[in-house]
Amino acid sequence: MPVLPAKPFYLLRHGETVTNALGLMTGGSDPEVNGVGVAQAESTASWIGDITLKPSLIVRSDRSRTKFTAETINKNLNVPIHIEPALDEHNFGDWIGMPYEEAKKRTFINNETPPNGESFDVFTQRIQAIMTKILNTYNDPVLFVGHGGTFRAIAKMYNKPLWGSKNCQLHYFEPIQREDFPWQVTQFMSDKQTKVLEI
Asked: Are strands 194-196 and 57-60 parallel, antiparallel or unpaired?
C-alpha cells in the first residue's frame, strides 16, 4: 500500500461525543460533541495558538463533531478551514451503535466487513488517498481534524500495531529517515508539555 508524502502535518481527533462516552461504535453516524467534548476543545484552543510551528490550514471531515472541534480551536489559530468528506470516520454500517470492543474485535482482529459499511482496507485506502492529495497540495503543515480511525488507518498503512488517540489530543507527524515508520510522532498535552511516541 502506498505511504504518505514526506511532509509534516498535525492530526487531532474531535472532542468527545455521547457515543464515545458510552463506548459505542460511532463511525458512519453524526453525534454531536457532548459537554466533556466542548471542554476538551476549549482547553486545546487555549494553548494551540502558542505552539512554535503553527498549521497553515485546517482540514476537517464533514461531521458535526469535527466541525465544532475545528471551529473552536481555530479561534486562536485564525487559519482557513477546508471541509473534506473523504476524511470521514470508518463507516461501520449496520454495526453503528454496537459496543466498541465487539466491533473492534470483529473488524480489526477477525477482518470482518460491517454489513452496509466498509472494510478496514477500503477505509484505509480512502484515508491514504485524501491525506496524500492534501499533503501534495500544501507545503506548510496542515492540521487534520479527524477521527480515531484516522490514526488506525495510518498505522495500517505502515503495518504497525493499531493505536488510537484521546479526544482532542494534538499529534505532530514529522518525517524522519526510518524504513518501517518514517515519522516521529509528538503528542501534545499543551504547547509546552509534549511526548514523543514509540511506534
From this structure: unpaired
Q: Model pTM?
A: 0.96
Confidence of residue 1 (pLDDT cuts 50, 70, 90): very low
Do residues 62 and 84 make contact, with C-beta atoms less than 8 angstroms apart? yes
Q: What grid cell was written down for 82?
A: 477546508
The predicted pLDDT at position 2 comes to 55
Q: How far apart are CA 55 and CA 51, in angstroms?
A: 9
CA distance 189 to 192: 8
Q: What is the number of other CB atoms lying within 10 angstroms of the CB of residue 142?
A: 22
Structure-derived torsion over alpha carbons of residues 96, 102, 108, 111, reported in degrees to the nearest 10 = -90
State which CATH number among 3.40.50.1240, 1.20.1260.10, 3.50.50.60, 1.10.3860.10 fits the domain covering 9-171+183-196.
3.40.50.1240
Residue 64, burial from CB neighbour count under 10 angstroms (0-12, 13-18, 19+): middle
Look at the block and give the residue holding cell 477500503: 122
